[in-house]
Amino acid sequence: MKLIRKNMKIFEITESGKITARLINFRTEPELFTARLVMDEKIHKEVFSNYLDKLAELLKRTFPDKTIVLNIGRVDKEINGPHFEVIKRVQMELEIDKFGPYPENEKVEALTFEDIVENIDKIYDAFSPVDKKAFGIKMRDQLLRMFEDLMINEKFGHWLPELSIKIGTPLKGFVTCAKMDGPSTNGAFLIADLLVFEKFRRQGIATSLMREVLRRGKTKGFSRAILSVAVKNPAMHLYERLGFTITDWSCFMVVDN
């Protein structure tokens, strides 16, 4: 198996001189390589795991100092290999047109990037382990850059400060939100992150944050809320209780160097 760089956006994967797959829209960062895996040939499920394991070994040799995260699309059966792990993430959605107010029991305030900077150590410790793997996050600086890309650089959509809120002084938990572009997201906003520090969990704070975000979203004229969550993240149960339903899903292959 060989990895051949085709251009600035595509790597080709070949076996015996024949292209079997492509890595498209790849991004390289100091500690991370991400891409989407597109198969040129349909591979039987029974040998797909072996194919991914060979690919994982190849990528580890090619990028020895990076964590590799590949979006491999929908995989029906649970697969993992000696050199990789697969994390399933689902997209969930909720119609909020009829979402009403709730009795507030905590003071809700606007979240700022300064709040993230000041609390990054606690945020890193509280960040879901499965999400750290899915995003290739191993250090606090990486997580801080992710929030900077969301809130300052707007790489994940237009930042919505009016819907990004926090509870507690000192900070107990927060939600971040953005507006995505594209026809499929018309009338929708993205709930990018929901996080509550460990000592304040199971006190209803996450529910309060979510309900307030949905209320504000309705007030701002949005009709839908969209989020993405790993199926092994306990927060998925909260989203289901609030009425979110699964609309799509993808699997991510993680190769840890």
From TrEMBL:
Residues 106-257 form the N-acetyltransferase domain. This is GCN5-related N-acetyltransferase. The lineage of its organism: Bacteria, Thermotogati, Thermotogota, Thermotogae, Kosmotogales. CDD domains: NAT_SF. GO terms for molecular function: acyltransferase activity, transferring groups other than amino-acyl groups. InterPro entries: Acyl_CoA_acyltransferase (IPR016181), GNAT_dom (IPR000182). It holds the Pfam family Acetyltransf_1. It comes from Kosmotoga olearia (strain ATCC BAA-1733 / DSM 21960 / TBF 19.5.1).
